[in-house]
User: Fold these one by one.
Assistant:
Number 1:
Amino acid sequence: MKEESFKSIDEDLRNLAIDPDVLEKELAAELQGDPLDDIDFEAYASDKNKALTECQLGLQWLEKGHEERLQGLRVFCEHRDPRALPLLIPLLSEPCPVERMSAVYALGRNPSPKAVDILLGLLQSDSNAYVRKAAAWSLGNYSTSPVLDPLVRALHNDVAAVRLWAASSLAEVGSTSIENAERVVSELLLGLRIDQEPLVRSNCIWSLGRLYEQVFESMKSELIEGLFCILLNDLEPSVRYEARVALEQIQSPEVVTRLKKLVEDGVLL
């Protein structure tokens, strides 16, 4: 996932200001942090014995009280263990939003077909945007399930933090077939044109870059034109930079020539 996606809780609160009452009433007293912000997506435990010990403790914690369950959930946000699945899925229905959110992340790390429908329901209708954000991320790990349409709806209709992760997860869904890639690229290009949040537009660009090789030539041309439009017209420098990086990674003589001319003409540095 993009580095810019890992935002602090303070920034998440600003992004999720659309849900002030929910956040104030449900999270203010106990939210310690968003598990997604703490997961190291590159590093896994090198010591297998240590990992096994942590998982064993995590399984025990999941069967205890609220505080212990939160500790157990954090274990399975980092580790994969099929033994945790029967204990994780029921926690998706917990009244505490922190537990629901953490269980969603844990089931992104430990995917289970039995969790798909519940995760989709949370993405669509959970009252808490942190939970929906978690679902948008986790469903990217269920890319062979019927998650495309729900993620597209989230991309276009939810709050910024949820849209951001929907854009990233759609890259995973698009990679499963040419048909899905064509649909996802079309929706990401739409998001790139209309979304008001720079971070969301940046993640749309990141996903478009990943899907370029997956689509037909006509869609490749549309994708390239969309990126050039952003490169030349977006008001946010970071988004223009992302578009340039994505274009430079496309192995096309035409793209190279166009970028070179923009530099020669002084449009690009």
Number 2:
Amino acid sequence: MKRISLVVLAVSMLFASGVYAQDANVKTLDSKQVAKLDVTGKWVGKRSQYSWDKSTFIEVFQYEFDLKQEGDKVTGTTTIITQNGEYADMLVEGVLVGNKLFFREYEVKGAIRPENKVWCFKSGELNFTTDGTNLKLEGATNSYMEQYNYQCSGGVTELTKVDNSPNVAVVQTTPSVKGTAPEVSVNVFPNPFVEHATVNYTLVDKNNNVSVEVFDMSGKQISILYNGKQSAGTYSLNYDATANPANSGMLIVKTTINGNIYSQQLVQMR
């Protein structure tokens, strides 16, 4: 079992109705900054687990990523440890899309399980943020049972990169001001889904270059739902999983509108 260093656990999360509130001093990096990052190495921090109704946190775990980046693809291991010393080491894969890291745990390599409990695979999308000194990964992330992708209660992940020296120039720059790109509404429903999901989006500009793509968690493109020009308006595109099978059931919908990327995780129930 790995040991997690440089971690001080404290439940200092702010929440309301299960929604994570980010520190006002922490800035989210944009896609151009994330493209310059080196995420290889150790990330240490904590995992706060929601109650089933997501109204509060019921447990805090030590949490670590040990990642290797090759292009946009990320592989490695994670380690999660309870306050009583139970743990799980898991294999993880992911991909950088826009300014986010999409990841999924997919195999338990070694574990001591809490009595009458199972380890759920964590999966989701994490934002790259900085306080001007440290590079962080933060976000609310879902969790799923090892079989059938049945949803666990989920939680919030907060990690800090241990050796940040390759990224100093990036984290000390000022992130782009939010709102410089037109606000665009993109959502996927239902999510999780069984066979079919719909990507809905609204365009505000008169002329738009639009592409909507679906990727698996290894970064492989498995479907192009649209690629072309569209005028202002509301659009819906159907994703048919029966024609585009994915082994993991964890997908990424990448919508690019005039060069701006809007990405979201999509989960297929098995």
